[in-house]
Amino acid sequence: MHRACPPxxxxxxxxxxAVPAPAxxxxxxxxxxxxxxxxxxxxxxxxxxLVVDAKTGATVYSRNPDTMLAPASVTKLFSCAxxxxxxxxxxxxxxxxxxxxxxFKGTLRxxxxxxxxxxxxxGGRTKDGKTVFKDKDHTYANGGFGDSEVTDTDPLxxxxxxxxxxxxxxxxxxEGEVLIDxxxxxxxxxTGSGPDAVSPIxxxxxxxxxxxxxxxxxxxxxxxxxRPATSFYNVDAVVTxxxxxxxxxxxLLTVGPTQFAVRGRVPQGAKPRLRVxxxxxxxxxxxxxxxxxxxxxxxxxxxxxxRPANNNLPPKGDYxxxxxxxxxxxxxxxxxxxxxxxxSHNLYASALPCLVAAxxxxxxxxxxxxxxxxILTELGVDTDAIxxxxxxxxxPADHVTAKATVxxxxxxxxxxxxxxxxxxxxxxxxxxxxxxxxxxxSPAKGKVFAKTGTLIWYDAVxxxxxxxxxxxxxxxTTKNGTAIHxxxxxxxxxxxxxxxxxxxxxxxxxxxxxxxxxGP
Length: 520
Description:
The chain is an alpha+beta fold. About 25% of the residues lie in helices and about 30% in strands. It contains eleven helices and 23 strands. It has helices spanning about 10-20, 25-35, 75-85, 155-170, 280-295, 335-345, 345-360, 365-380, 400-415, 420-425, 500-520; strands at about 45-55, 60-65, 95-105, 105-115, 125, 130, 175, 180, 190, 195-200, 205-215, 225, 235-240, 250-255, 260-265, 275-280, 300, 325-330, 385, 400, 450-460, 465-475, 485-495. The strands form seven sheets. Strands 3, 4, 7, 8, 17 and 18 form a six-stranded mixed β-sheet that branches. The longest helix has 17 residues, at about 500-520. It is globular and about 80 Å long.
């Protein structure tokens, strides 16, 4: 539980003292940084930068540190920090299954109810007892990332575990319903790329992976595999194999509530292409998958997979009167934060304010954001210099200053959650969203732990893209061994035709290299 808020005067004093008066940065460092920042590419853009000595708080470099800018996914630094403080790094959620009715000679004459706990991974990212991720997460597969990957894990591991536990109690047949209780918090829509149905029950990131493999010859039908396999969705796939060297063109089209189509082409000889279909009814999706898991594991559920005949859930307080037949404990909460920050997982980040609210007995994202404000105040963040409409960074309201972001880092560095927080950040040149930001021989490789952010819109007037935001914030060590906290945000960069946000990603990587080589 976080500490009570201090008196307002003390809060203002703490905020005022968080970043000391700027010290004159080395002329060579300033010139080198501004040689990158002040190029014609950024004639119409706005930069917000603050670099401070992590130990003393002295300013190393600043530019517009008090200007509120769109931080894109750097927003996740704030939502993850607040959730870590509210829940604890080692907190584990318990997803429980209850029987309602009597079981006699293996037959349950009643219902089986799975109560969602807000476990965002539900065992689906676990391999050899560890939580794993891919640098280019499957949830970004529809955004033009041709090399997005799925993890080498079983997305149904948690549901299979629960089903086996049910079988172990002696139940082999269910005559009633199988239900999902997802009342932990109210559903919302997340922001950013990928699946956006935010709910207390999540299986495979509320997505169906569609893996498309070209045929052997031009004109052959491509092979389509979906993951997880389920009878809940009908997939109508017509994808052809195009000539080698042509571009991939794949589209997923919603046909009905439980139907979608796959259309397009993939080039001959190309590696399999991944796309994802976002599930719109997570509770029904999870229910169908749980029924199928029960049947696979020797429990014959008589109910229909598509939709329950009734959805008569008991009052929340009545579960203590029912028999618990299965329990799944989540990975430590710090693992959820790790995946969220490493791959910039929008669905998880959008759910964090909801989980914060639930930890305080409330059930809305708005309530969670209000709790987040209190936590950020305690961490020494000037909350007048931030604005959030959600947890992921894609909401129009999401704006921060570089100074407020550095204050967040300074506040977290004083807490016991810092080690878990820092370990969850992408590492420059090593993993996550920073894996390819610098060359392998970069002197700064492995020295920068930071969250990145990208927000891009299509400019139809000029037939180009507008990079609304490219950002990086975190902590690093200079060549001299000095720890520094860094926030760099650039907004409103018109991108020439054929240029992507990857260019600015390399620019931020270059600025990190300069800070490493020429910083204090």
